[in-house]
Every structure is written in structure tokens, then in C-alpha cells.
Amino acid sequence: MSSEVIYEYFPNLTEEQRRRFDALQALYEDWNAKINVISRKDIGNLYLHHVLHSLAIAKVIEFADDSSVMDVGTGGGFPGIPLAILYPKCHFLLVDSIGKKIRVCQAVIEALGLDNVEAVQERVEEEKSTFDFVVSRATMPMSDLVRLTRKNVDKKHLINPLPNGWLMLKGGELEREIGTFKKYAEVTDVSEFFKDEYFETKKVVYLPLS
Fold first, then answer.
1. Domain boundaries, the chain
2. Whether residue 100 has pLDDT greater than 80
3. What is the 3-state secondary structure (H, E, C) of the chain?
């Protein structure tokens, strides 16, 4: 599947944004042959399963200019890199403890000429900076993510339509995982805005800093 699936849902992209999205397939195919960050069986579904899935967050919130976002357990750069392309005036930090994955992220960032995103190898416990939002894609249970990154969510809610907090891409049954957060969490079915059957069980969970 080509990058056209992105433009179906995000038709107002600039030429520069389209150029960067178009470049992702070749970049990830090249790097995936050296360092396996995406399942070899799934690399042909890069735009649907990884890029568009990452952009589901953008259907829940439109980040204001100058927002800061940390992507925890970014792996090959998802959701951070697609979001950084979509929001060139926001600032992104991609964090993963596995060096080879960060190496791929750094190479893709450099090849795309993205100057609003940085990728670092570290455990999230080590990161001291604060951000408007923490994002993740099925990295760890919600309770663990919140516990480890509460220190990183800025208490000052300045510019965004939603209060600062967490935006998590999840799948399947979430009742038990949401647990004590049920009163505050807002769960959105990705199938509300992306129609492919792949997204039938996918969700975006937003949790405000409480």
C-alpha cells in the first residue's frame, strides 16, 4: 500500500510533508534489511499499519505550534516520526532503550531533514525534561507508563485544546488495563475515522494529568 492512504485522510498536506511521507517506504525498507525494526512480513504495510496508525493521535488532538511531545518506546520511530512530519512546528523527543532502534530513527530523521525531532537511547526513567504530552504505541501497560513518566508531563497547561497528559495507541480489550484510570481516560475507536478493517480493534486513549 502506498502513501496515498495517508492523503485520503490528510488531504491538506504541504508538498514538503508529502515528500517526507513518500520517502518513508524506501528508507524503512533499506534500514529494515540491516536492522529489523519492523516485521519483515509487515514492511509492505508500512503506511497503513505504522504511519497511518501513528497519525490516529492527530484525529484526537491537533497539537498547537510549539507543543512538546515525548514518544516513549518509539521503536523504529512510531508514532513520533509521522507526527513530527505532520506537525513541523512542534518539538518531539523519541526515547528507546535499544540502541539499534534509535540508530534507525536518527538515520530516518536525518534523511528527511526533520529539525523538530531528536531520538535518544535511554531508559525513560533517566529523562528529566518535561513535555506537554507523552505518546506511546503499545509500549507497556498504562499504569507503568503513567508511573514512569508522570514526572515528564508539564503541569502548566498553556496552549493545547486538551490538558497536558498521555496519548496512547492501544488495541483489543482495555477494561482491565484502564482500571483505576477509568474515571479520567477518554477512549476513542480509531475505526471512527480510519475505515480499513485493520483499525477495528485499535484505540487512542487520552489521559489528562490529574
1. 4-208
2. yes
3. CCCHHHHHHCCCCCHHHHHHHHHHHHHHHHHHHHCCCCCCCCHHHHHHHHHHHHCCHHHHCCCCCCCEEEEECCCCCCCHHHHHHHCCCCEEEEEECCHHHHHHHHHHHHHHCCCCEEEEECCHHHCCCCECEEEEECCCCHHHHHHHHHHHECCCCCCCCCCCEEEEEEECCCHHHHHHHCCCCEEEEHHHCCCCHHHCCEEEEEEECC
* Alpha carbon distance 43, 165 (integer Å): 31
Asked if pLDDT for residue 158 goes beyond 90, the answer is no
**pLDDT at residue number 148:** 97
pLDDT digits (tens, 9 = 90+) for 10-58: 999 999 999 999 999 999 999 999 988 888 889 999 999 999 999 999 9
According to CATH, what is the number of the domain 4-208?
3.40.50.150
